[in-house]
Amino acid sequence: MEKIITSDDILGKEAIDPEGEYLGIVMKLHIDREKKILLGITVDQGFMKPDLYVGLDYIERFGIDAVLINKIPMEKYIGLRVYDASGGYCGVIQELEERDGRLEKICVRVKLAEGGKRQSAEKSLIKIPIRDIAEIGYSILLKKSNYLEFSSVPELEER
Amino acid sequence: MKIYIANKIFPEGISFWSIFWRKTLSRSGEYCGRISGINFSEGSLVGINLLYGTKKIWLGLDCVQTLEISGKKSALILNIDPVYLMEGKRVYDSDGRKLGRVIRVIQKGPHNDFDFILVKKGFFSKPISFKKELVQVMKKNIILRDSISV
Questions:
Q1: Residues in chain B within 8 Å Cβ distance of A21
Q2: Are B90 and B30 in a shared domain?
Q3: What pTM was estimated for this model as a whole?
Q4: What is the domain extent for residue B108?
Q5: Which residues pair with B16 in a beta bridge?
Q6: Which of A56, A80, B113, B140 could, after both became Cys, cross-link B108 (CB 3.0–4.6 A)?
Q7: pLDDT above 80: residue B95
């Protein structure tokens, strides 16, 4: 591979996270006007999704056909379905809580009352700490079974 | 000998209809297909049949984490990431070169393991095989360990 590349070798390329997931297309380069160095890139994630800024520290390599990124953007987790250890559906991730760049809690929108009609079901937001999560992938799998039935569900908030 | 008649909820075991057409998820939460049948041998459950697209898959009961079913939307969770899920995934080498998509996985006997993957870039291009040892990341897509010049 050549050591020096041009903007044409970066712009329009796919951005790939460490799990190999396609994030979007590199749209912009951010350059420090005074220091004359590259600061990061902007990735276009597609229709109705916000653009993603990736700093130079999070870029693993400017590849031939793709830019490899060394950190999974946390925004990717929003909208994932959450299941408990026995496969019970809990809800969908709506918000994330992070501290110092580390994921601390996921806020899951759950249906508490099992009503026959959708309108009768009470919807609430529960916060699940990261220690209760077994796997984060295509969906979120929790460590415990029947998570919502436990009285120790942390910080139940009604909305 | 126990007999329960006309009870809505039977106290022991699970019924076929409670797991039929239920969604299955791999260990990493990926959709693996829907349950289309169950297999018995000498009176005990030995495996489940899945329908993944048009593919029919048989999975031994040891691949299933739990057969517990709770709600309508609940899924059956496997304790493996089945190799057939690799088909259709994109393949990149370590230099970020796009090599194509997995068209076939050469499975190692009946085990959840593989020897080779066959990768094709375009419709008319020749498939290239890559050994398992070359695979570095095998999650949402595949990233190879080395730089491959095609």
A1: 139-141
A2: no
A3: 0.81
A4: 84-144
A5: none
A6: B113
A7: yes
